[in-house]
Task: structure prediction
Amino acid sequence: MSKFRNLLIGTTLVTLAASPVMAEKLGLGRAALPEEVAAWNLDVSPDGTGLPEGSGSVLDGEEVFADNCAICHGDFAEGVDNWPKLAGGMDTLNHKDPLKTVGSYWPYLSTAFDYVHRSMPFGSAQTMSADDTYAIVAYILYSNDLVDEDFVLSKDNFLEVEMPNADGFIVDDREEAEKHFWTEPCMENCKPEPVKITMKAAVLDVTPDEED
Amino acid sequence: MTAPVKGPVKGNAPSRRAFLRGTIAAGGALAGATMARAQATPDPLITEVQDWASGLGDGVDATPYGLPIEFESDVIRRNVEWLTADTISSINFTPIHALDGTITPTGCAFERHHSGAIELRKEDYRLMINGMVDQETIFTYEDLERFPRENHTYFLECAANTGMEWAGAQLNGAQFTHGMIHNMEYSGIPLRTLLEEAGLDTAGDLKDKWVYVEGADASSNGRSIPMEKALDDCLIAIKANGEALRKEHGYPVRLVVPGWEGNMWVKWIRRIEVMDGPVESREETSKYTDTLDNGISRKWTWVMDAKSVVTSPSPQMPITHGHGPLVITGMAWSGRGAITRVDVSKDGGMTWETARLAQPGEDKALTRFYLETEWNGEEMFLQSRAMDSTGYVQPTKNMLREVRGENSIYHNNCIQTWWVKPNGEAENVEVS
Result:
């Protein structure tokens, strides 16, 4: 691209080869109606923006969860087969193979509400009412021992729930923490002695067999 | 008739073993030969008239939309069943070991769905821009076709590519260790154009603004993208490799986020919301965050660092032609810029030689490299090491582990080692 551009510099063709320049708006599209925006603009932010009116209790949540979620996530949010575990795993993040659940890992409760309300249950997304969603989220909190069984989650107390791993994240620091990867690479005698095999994939033998 | 699919993935497919024995035996007869092979008896493929040289082939329209010839039927996407709970929310792998050049043929470009690949007609497609814009706007597919569009080639790599290899060598094949990648030419409208059509005056200072993008499928796969990136090089793509997007790649419209992790390239994109902060959606908190050894996790690790892999020889592509000239090839890419150099080592990183780039590296696109060499049955620990236009050098797995530990799952761009044995077979290993 840049090579072409250099070749064409100084000719009238340069504007044709470069990105199209929009002098002004084309007037395409139409104004979105408030009802349309309301139907799709469902996302919920960490500060609670986007939360609908409503509430749900742990006890109601237990029932809604059993009917809609437990087939994959288990009665106690412990997970079935390879489906995600939503509860447990506290204090495992610095262990080998940490268990990352809503309780042990997710930094914001808004994420759980947003995801359940917009994209769950698997295969029947967008069928949960606001109240049912509050109830499901309350039950997930209860399954993680983060609230008592008489807890009721609502738009009003939503931000009061403390997530254990809220402070467990840092913004991408690769350019600082890994700045030694920007270097002049070694070309000869790069290791003290000839290499030895330290691990083979065939030992684990997890490669999918093509015969099935 | 369709040929049975049996690629030499496990290193124990009987047909390949037999083939290998045959060729090694043949090769033995010309040890050290640098000239053409001697032939004792005339080759019947030449001396006898073959069917294809006498009869007729297929007419036009035999396949109005063509597929590869049956002899290539093993060059297909494959998945790893134990990785995910089902195939609806799952991933498969591009057969990179068998491809050459840089453009990934669309039909074997890997798929990753969170709620399955949906069927959405162009007529039913709507794109909403809402939030902090001057006019919340709806575009149809026809509207999109009337905006000026651009053509760009970019790689898309899933952040989890090579993710199974953190704790040790696991999967025996470049397709499975590095196949969550494809490289296509996109035709699309700059995201900037559409945002400016809706008007950004309302948003005020754009420096701290974000766009939230989501798809029309059940997963929605919502992601937050800083406004700076949205206005820089993101595309609303309506074509890939010259044709309509495939269903599995987001037909009719997908987002292209050059150089950044594939999860952000929202398929079936239906909404773009201008916001004053990130949503911190499921896909950018519980997933696609990288947990370090101390339990703290990096978030917003969007850029895909420079990476490369030798695609042949590799476990699925053993050396079957005996001793003598050997072409080592592979691919390299960087989300930070263009590939400027690829080095290859045959001894596990002790010594390196610079490979030949087939074309000068392009910004955020795949680069093909070749190393033409001589192989006489010696054991090799084949590695490749990419460098990009920012001066970044692809690290070893141990260098990554020293910074990150083994629990990151995502963004494993380590140097890969293939152990090529004297019989030409290759295996995924780690070396000291």
